[in-house]
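Run log // design_07
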């Protein structure tokens, strides 16, 4: 986090729903990422749904636990395109999927994630694919049991570190810009609308 972003947060209500949406989901709002997780208290759940209904973003509840709800906030068309990539399809088959539809992936991750969080079952590595992480990094994480990474940012990087560090910087810059807008009194729906027509940028490269 940059010094400017840190200073901004000193004067902001961190419990505010709009601030938390920006903090957790700026990359997907900006069109730099396919999806993000959004974790908020249950008392804010309906407010989040109301906000997202006014945007071009889709959402799905993945988990409700300990008075918190975990949402998947995503761009369905781009997620579908990503899942059709050959290297993603190959990794999904390695993880036991005969097909790799968006619906199948979301439903399975939802079940496995709950099992992991509630019963300490196996971690669903396909969560990384659901979040649009590069397949080579998801594969690297599995093969190395989360160790031996080149860099750790928004995810653990195992290949093409320079490009991904640049991408992470763009994520940070998007979050800082949106925090500035929120701090100026612009509501989150209008912030999302600013980026709505922006095409989803290529994730890496």
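design_07 sequence
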């Amino acid at each position: 986090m940059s010094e400017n972003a840190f200073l901004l947060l000193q004067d902001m209500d961190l419990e505010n729903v709009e601030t938390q949406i920006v903090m957790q989901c700026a990359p997907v709002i900006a069109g730099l990422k396919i999806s993000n997780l959004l974790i908020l208290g249950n008392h804010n759940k309906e407010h989040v749904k109301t906000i997202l209904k006014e945007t071009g973003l889709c959402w799905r509840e993945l988990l409700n636990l300990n008075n918190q709800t975990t949402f998947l906030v995503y761009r369905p068309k781009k997620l579908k395109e990503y899942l059709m990539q050959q290297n993603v399809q190959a990794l999904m088959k390695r993880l036991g999927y005969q097909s790799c539809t968006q619906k199948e992936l979301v439903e399975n991750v939802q079940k496995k994630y709950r099992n992991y969080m509630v019963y300490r079952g196996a971690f669903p590595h396909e969560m990384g694919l659901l979040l649009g992480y590069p397949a080579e990094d998801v594969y690297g994480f599995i093969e190395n049991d989360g160790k031996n990474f080149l860099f750790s940012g928004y995810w653990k990087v195992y290949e093409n570190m320079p490009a991904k560090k640049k991408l992470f910087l763009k994520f940070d810059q998007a979050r800082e810009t949106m925090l500035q807008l929120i701090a100026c009194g612009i509501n989150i729906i209008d912030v999302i609308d600013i980026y709505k027509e922006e095409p989803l940028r290529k994730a890496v490269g």
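Residues 81 and 89 are 11 Å apart (CA to CA).
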